Amino acid sequence: MVNSAYSLTTHGTLHFGEPHTQSQGTYRLTKGDFAREYHVYACEWEPGEIRFYVDDVLYFTEKDWFTKKDGADKAAYPAPFDQPFYMILNVAVGGSWVGYPDKTTQFGENARLVVDYVRVYQKDEF
């Protein structure tokens, strides 16, 4: 999930397949600020569906994806999300999607990622 500094918008994105196929949902706060308050982000991953939430509000669901394998046109759904993955929490600056920083870029004096807690659950049936 991506937040723009001092923004009211966040994005949940899945990257899969070739060449760099992706699917994305966007959520805009109706009150408050992502940069100044804690928010609860959630991702629910079940066979055939991945859902993204902010503060218990569902804002993006993906039910269709694929991945390409060497020598094949495309792998059968649900690859690649039929394999174990790991979670990354980080602050990333720049890139082709949001643009690269330059001398006019303002990050703010206290630009940082603050995480209060991380919880991971697995349903009994999985």
Please tell me about this protein's structure.
The protein is mainly beta. It has one domain (1-118): Sandwich (Jelly Rolls). Helices cover 0% and strands 29% of the residues. It is built from no helices and 6 strands. The chain has strands spanning 2-3, 9-16, 21-28, 41-46, 49-54, 57-62. The strands form 2 sheets. A 3-stranded antiparallel sheet has the order 1-2-3, with no helix packed on it. The protein has a 3-stranded antiparallel sheet with strand order 4-5-6, with no helix packed on it. The radius of gyration is 17 Å and the shape is globular. It starts with a strand and ends in a 64-residue tail after the last strand. The model has no long low-confidence stretch (mean pLDDT 80).
Measured by DSSP, the beta-strand proportion falls in 25-35%
What are the low-pLDDT stretches, counting only 5+ consecutive residues below 50? none
Strand line-up across the major sheet:
1-2-3
Estimate the global geometry from the Cα principal axes.
globular
Biggest sheet layout? 3 strands, antiparallel
Short account of what is shown:
The chain has 126 residues and is mostly beta strands. It has no helices and six strands.
Layout of helices and strands, plus pairs?
Layout: E1 2-3, E2 9-16, E3 21-28, E4 41-46, E5 49-54, E6 57-62
Antiparallel strand pairs: 1-2, 2-3, 4-5, 5-6
Brief descriptors of the model:
single chain, 126 residues, mainly beta, Jelly Rolls, three-stranded antiparallel β-sheet, 6 strands, 29% strand, globular
